[in-house]
Structure formats: structure tokens, C-alpha cells
Amino acid sequence: MTRPPLRAVRRAVQIGVALVMAAVPLANAAGVNWISGNFLALDILGLPLGDPLAAAQVAASARGIAWPAALGAGLAMGLALVLGPVFCAYACPYGLFSEWAHGLARRLGRVRPGRFPQNGLAGRAVLAGAGLAVVGLWGLPPLVNLVSMPAAYSRLWQYALAGALWLPLLAVPAVLCVEVLAGARLWCRFVCPQSVALALAHRLAPWGLGLAYAGKRCTCPPGARRCLAACSLGLDPRRKAPPAACTNCGDCLDACRQAGRALRFRLGRPATGLSATDSTSPAGRL
Amino acid sequence: MSDGHLLRPPGARDEAEFLRRCLQCGRCAQLCPFGSIFLEAGFDPRTCGTPRIDPRRTPCWLCMRCPPACPTGALRPVTEMAKAGMGRAWLDKARCSTYEGSILCKTCHEKCPLRNTALIMDLGMFPVVTDACVGCGVCESVCPRQAIVTLPRAALPPGAGGGTP
Ligand code: SF4
Ligand code: SF4
Ligand code: SF4
Ligand code: SF4
Q1: How far from A150 is each of A18, B51, B104, B123, CA to CA, in Å?
Q2: From ligand 2's centre to the CA of B59, what distance in Å?
Q3: Which one of A52, A282, B17, B23 is most buried, counting C-beta atoms within 10 A?
């Protein structure tokens, strides 16, 4: 029996999240309050969930732990430790728009693989760290939130309800245009400070969900690797350890299922002792 | 709003600390059953996205639902109306109908959530705002003569009350 491609499931989740977040302010206005907040800090049935960088800025600036926000950040980090930065691939509405923009760029023939470096996490980490340091040292408001693309999306709806416009919102279509022209998902790969903590958790947690590549099963001829063409982030998943910027979206995996099935998801990374070429590892397939 | 200071929801900490803590999540605004809180728009990166109240639009009715909803303690989790500490109302006697002697109005007194402590009736007739006023802005919103303005706590002269915690 064939499984539906992961991508179909993922799209449904992404669109669902985007719709729910658009509906939150409306629902609240109608007195439905089991969910409230935006991507900076959410409350779902009393469970906090939030952006770790936002909570970290408050903690650094106010020199103290702000509890529900810290708890929400902790839950988000816990999720990333186990599943990787799946927020980016399954929840972030900007990620969805950016993928659509990338699809458009592909159709326009603007995507040229290999034009941008594989590693972007270090640069993103420096940006996030610098922002956090500036906010913390000078005791400033959490200014890095202004460039949170998911927060910008929820704010669009929060403001729309009030009939107001929040001007930084205009940045979202502007960045999308740049991404189409560049033929690469530049924001998610090289700028987004919000995803750094999640990506680092993915990188450092040896037990988390990640890609495993079994080189000897790979059947694609060089120059026509399906996985490379499928990754909207322009990553090469054929590595011993998954690329640092990988969001576990599974697009490469879907593509590889049409070929040698050399890529799999696996709990526990090859780096922890599981061989990258051992496709029958008992660590489990997902 | 005087000096660019914004009237914050109940329980808000001192403006500088409030700004450090407010995540701009909007929960307080979303959960206010009266739609009293709106999120500041505009270009100022420090304040845009933070919650404020404009009594002439919709005052705060001191239901005290928003403070416990704040995930960062930018709004202290107070639930007592008397501790809302938002600011203080000022009544301009020259504009008030009662002081002016045209009609015996009493509207502000009837609507004040802290009537008889924050807003008392001198000689049973003349409204007087006391230091127990917390600055919810209800009186400002109902006064038919626009004789009342609500100053945010940050804009108050020192020692001017405002239900400061
Ligand atoms: S490497 Fe694969 S799983 Fe990772 S982001 Fe790219 S397509 Fe998605
Ligand atoms: S106390 Fe009640 S009425 Fe006042 S701002 Fe908060 S939620 Fe709204
Ligand atoms: S709930 Fe707290 S953190 Fe969120 S917008 Fe209101 S004051 Fe700011
Ligand atoms: S006097 Fe006015 S501002 Fe003060 S508590 Fe009463 S209604 Fe609110």
C-alpha cells in the first residue's frame, strides 16, 4: 500500500495552522477563548507555547524569568529537541508563503542550485545572538520580534480586526519578492533569528528526529539527484549528519521514494553511532 | 494622551519595565470582553504592537480579566480593581455641568467602577476624583461635557495617586 506523500500531509497542516491563526482574533472577539495570542506567545487550552527568542529577550532585558512565556519557550524547545525545527516546515505561515514563492521562482526558471552556500545557521545564530545581546545589555523592548515573520502574519489579523495597519507588515511581501527574484528562500536560510534556537536544538540533540542517508541505495545519476531538486531550502541531504538548516520537511524523502529510497527519517542520528549506510538499523523508521 | 505616554491595561508595570516585558503577543487585547484594548500601530519600534486604551474610544471596565492573561508579567497578575494602577482622571470644573450650575449631572459618579472611593460626591452633588482613582477612563468616556481626561500613570506628577501599586 502506498503512503500519501508527506508533503500532502504537511501542506494540510501548514494551511490549517495559517487558517487557525487568522481566526484567533475573530474567535476571541466572539468570546471563544481556548486559544489566544500570536506566534510570539500562544495559549492553547491553558498550555503556553511560544517563541524561545522572544522569551529570551524578555528574560535578558528584564533580568528575570517571565514564567508562562518561559514555559512556552521551553515546550517549543522540547518539541524541537525531539522533532527538529518542524515549526518551520509544518507551522510557520511565512514558511508556507516562502515555499509557494519558491514554487513560482522554479516555474520562472530562477532557481539555480548551488548558488548560495549550504551553511546559513552560523550567520543566523550571530544575528539572533547580536539582537539578544543588544536588547539585554541596554534593557530594550524585545525589538527582534519586529522581524519575526510568523508574528507578522498573526499581527496582520490582530490589526485587521482593529481596522489598523501595522507598517512592518509590508516587509513580508517585500521579502517574498526578493526571494522569487533570487530563486532562493533567503530569509529562512540566512536571516530568520526566530528559528535559530530550534535549529540548534536539532543540531545538538543526538536523540531527535532527523534524516538518515544510505548512500549505497542511492540510484539517481549525478547531476539529476531528485532530493537536491526537491529541497526548497536548497540543501543537500546526502550527508552523514543531516544539514544544519534542515527542517525535517520530508520533501527530499518524498522525492527519494520515487527512486532508491536512500533517505529515511530516523530517531537518533548517525552521529550517535548509527551508521549512515545502515538502512536496516533497529533505531526505527518513521 | 499627554507627552506621548499611553494608557496601559490594568496591572501594567512602570512604563520602562512594561516595555521591556511586553512581548507584543496581544493576548490582553484579544481576551478583553469589551474590546477596550487595542494594539498600538505605527512606526515606533519600541511601542508598536503594545496594548493601549483610549477611553474616548472604549474605556476599561475593570473586569480584571487581562492581567492574569499576560505571559510575561508586563501586566502584574492583579485581580483587585483598586490595584489596577493605570493612571488617574482629572475633572475640569469649568466644564462640568454640575459645577457650572446648569444641571445636576452625576453621570460619572454613576458609572465609575470604584464609585464612592475613586469618585466621590462632595455635598452629595459635586463629583470629586480622589487619589484612589485607577485611571480606567470610564468617567471620561461617559461625561457628556468632555470635562474629564484620564492621564496614564507615566504622565502623572509624582504623588498624584493613580492607584499606584
Ligand atoms: S533536506 Fe530534506 S527534509 Fe531537510 S529541509 Fe531539505 S527537503 Fe526538507
Ligand atoms: S480589565 Fe477588563 S475591561 Fe479592562 S482592559 Fe482588562 S479585560 Fe478589558
Ligand atoms: S498580554 Fe502582556 S505581553 Fe501580551 S501584549 Fe498584553 S501586555 Fe504585552
Ligand atoms: S474616577 Fe473615573 S477613571 Fe477613576 S476609577 Fe472612577 S471611572 Fe475610573
Answers
A1: 10, 19, 54, 57
A2: 8
A3: B23
What Rg value do the Cα atoms of chain B yield, rounded?
16
CA distance A7 to A251: 6
Residue ranges of E strands in chain A: 35-38, 41-44, 47-50, 209-213, 263-267
Residue of A134, A146, A158 to mutate when probing chain B, most B C-beta within 10 A: A158
Size of interface A-B (CB pairs under 8 A): 116
Ligand closest in space to the Cα of B59: 2
What is the predicted ipTM? 0.89
Q: Is B75:B12 a contact under the CB 8 Å cutoff?
A: yes
Q: Is B14 left (phi over 0), alpha (psi -120 to 50) or beta?
A: beta
pTM to 2 decimals? 0.89
What pLDDT sits at residue A277?
40
Q: Which residues contact A230 (CB under 8 A, 6 or more apart)?
A: A251, A252, A254, A255
Q: Between these two residues, A255 and B159, which has the higher pLDDT value?
A: A255
Best CA proximity match to A154, nearest among A169, A176, A170:
A169
Q: What are phi and psi of B129, to 5 degrees?
A: -85, 130
Distance of residue A10 Cα from the nearest chain B Cα, in angstroms: 26
The Cα A83–Cα A250 span in angstroms is 12
Tens digit of each residue's pLDDT (9 = 90 or more) over A172-223: 999 999 999 999 999 999 999 999 999 998 888 878 899 999 989 999 998 8
Question: In chain A, which residue's Cα lies nearest the Cα of B38?
Answer: A162
What are the residues facing B149 on neighbouring strands? B90
Taking the CA of residue A3 as centre, how many other CA atoms within 13 Å lie in the half-sphere pointing to its CB? 10
For residue range B129-141, list pLDDT tens digits in order. Answer: 999 999 999 999 9
Cell numbers given for A171: 516587509
- Residue to substitute in B62, B128, B134, B142 for testing ligand 4 pocket (most ligand atoms within 8 angstroms of CB): B134
CB-based contact B70:B77 (threshold 8 Å): yes
Q: For residue B48, is pLDDT > 90? A: no
**Which residue shows C-alpha cell 510568523?**
A150
Q: Which of A61, A158, A165 sits opposite B26 (nearest CB)?
A: A158
What average pLDDT score do residues A229-255 get? 92
Looking at CA atoms only, how far is residue B7 from chain A in angstroms?
Answer: 17
